[in-house]
Design a protein that fits this description.
21 helices; mainly alpha; two-stranded antiparallel sheet; globular
Length: 484
């Protein structure tokens, strides 16, 4: 194994130039040729690799001599994409389905509640920055996706480019695990006490730093790979998707994220449960079984690693609660996790309607104050659960709106799939729906909803699936009406 790694090590030098060339090609396709499928995936890649990982912003201060706040490359890209597709989609792709309108209304309500919470943060600038990253960026991406695609072939293109993006994430994880990290330095996370503890434990997150975030990305992408296998007629594309899926599952194993393991299992079950396209449930089970048989044959130790990790009752890893005081607890055992959630709910009850305000700094200050009063046991900066964190920072109305959005989308997706099983769009809807359900499970134990990386992919899948399913339902209703 070491000899193979040594032979492959020089390939690291081609990773950065290759990504630059790929970015130039994506820019040409998305901006110059106005390919919407490339544009959406390109935007996701820029958010994760440039905004989140590299922390790169436009050099405003160097250009005009003053700082007016950070402007990220993804901000410029999404505005260009929205402007390009706005007029054409208003005429040709306007989606006036009831479910899609309800989705936009609920998203708008959620965004308003997040904005109110940002004004209640300890520091207004930090609160607005959190609002921009957590809610405004996903909202803009949903505006781009909400009308679906004009060309049916662009659906397959979207799936293919998403698979390629997943392969890039896999390469990042493998490079960090086995090579000398010439490209992925991870300096931001190496300086963090929490990330240092995860690195010492052997867990790998690649471009995402935190292995849990990489695991959540894998949960979102696994069903998309399976529908790629089902959707593509070209054998070369099928083989490429299978190769990428092997990498994604292996990268998920490297994260050692138990929540992601279970979330991926749930997403696969959801994918299998709905018969769409030309494949029955039985045939899809055969495909999944064959894939994991190949995976176990190529990586026999991976299954044992997953089972050992799931069987653990207490973790040797530490979750840093307050880095400044160097306080830490075992954050993965059941008792400690329940203690975190209990304290989080206690904090949320102090201001249950609109929450205490956005931001980990706000959460930490309120938690510290309540700890001094003896109301909570632990000083923490978030509740280690996206649902509890949503309740604490933005209130129960926001939590209800978020749950309502997901219930609406899942219900609309399932209804559209059962009425239009043979259509190509149903296959894509089924994959996105499975990804959404698996991701929602991961949010129970992780704070991923408040992170810009994996949550961006989730919001895009959410918006795309409701756009396709609501339009499909609307067309079916019109056909039934005219048939009468």
């Amino acid at each position: 194994m070491k000899q193979i790694i040594q032979l492959l090590a020089p390939l690291q030098f081609f990773l950065k130039p290759g990504l630059i060339v790929l970015a130039i090609w994506c820019f040409w396709q998305a901006i110059v040729r106005r390919n919407k499928a490339v544009g959406i995936v390109f935007y996701i890649g820029i958010v994760i690799l440039v905004d989140y990982y590299l922390r790169a912003t436009l050099p405003i201060k160097e250009i005009i001599g003053s700082s007016i706040g950070s402007i990220r490359y993804s901000d410029i890209l999404i505005l260009i994409l929205l402007f390009q597709h706005r007029h054409r989609e208003k005429r040709e792709l306007q989606n006036d389905a009831v479910a899609n309108r309800q989705f936009i209304i609920l998203i708008t309500i959620l965004m308003i509640l997040f904005f109110i919470s940002s004004l209640r943060a300890n520091t207004l600038s930090l609160g607005l920055a959190d609002f921009r990253n957590i809610m405004l960026k996903p909202f803009l991406s949903m505006l781009l996706v909400r009308n679906g695609f004009k060309d049916k072939n662009q659906i397959e293109q979207f799936i293919l480019y998403t698979v390629i993006l997943g392969l890039i994430f896999t390469i990042g994880s493998i490079e960090m695990k086995y090579f000398d990290r010439l490209f992925i330095k991870g300096t931001h996370y190496d300086s963090s006490l929490m990330w240092g503890a995860l690195r010492r434990s052997g867990r790998v997150g690649g471009f995402f730093g935190n292995p849990n975030n990489m695991g959540n990305i894998c949960v979102l992408l696994v069903p998309i790979h399976f529908i790629g296998i089902q959707l593509f007629a070209d054998i070369k594309r099928k083989l490429f998707v299978i190769f990428s899926l092997l990498g994604i599952v292996f990268a998920m194993v490297l994260t050692e994220s138990r929540g992601s393991y279970m979330g991926a299992g749930i997403s696969i079950i959801c994918y299998l449960a709905l018969p769409v396209g030309k494949l029955t449930v039985k045939n899809k089970v055969k495909i999944v079984f064959c894939f994991f048989a190949i995976f176990m044959a190529l990586m026999p130790g991976a299954i044992q690693k997953i089972s050992d990790r799931l069987a653990e009752t207490d973790s040797q890893q530490e979750i840093v609660i307050n880095p400044s005081q160097e306080e830490a607890i075992d954050g993965e055992s059941l008792d400690s996790r329940l203690a975190l959630w209990k304290d989080g709910i206690t904090i949320g009850k102090t201001k249950p309607i609109f929450g205490i305000g956005l931001g980990e700094d706000t959460f930490r200050s309120v938690s510290a104050m309540m700890r001094e009063m003896g109301l909570v046991q632990i000083e923490l900066d978030h509740a280690h659960s996206s649902y509890i964190n949503l309740f604490v920072q933005t209130g129960f109305i926001s939590l209800l709106a978020f749950l309502g959005i997901n219930i609406l989308v899942i219900k609309t997706n399932i209804s559209a799939i059962y009425k239009n099983r043979e259509q190509k769009d149903s296959v894509v809807i089924a994959g996105c729906n499975a990804s959404i359900v698996g991701f929602l499970f991961c949010l129970i134990t992780q704070n991923t909803l408040f992170k810009i990386d994996a949550s961006t992919v989730y919001w895009v899948f959410l918006s795309l699936s409701i756009a396709l399913s609501s339009k499909m339902q609307n067309e079916s209703s019109k056909r039934e009406f005219y048939d009468k």
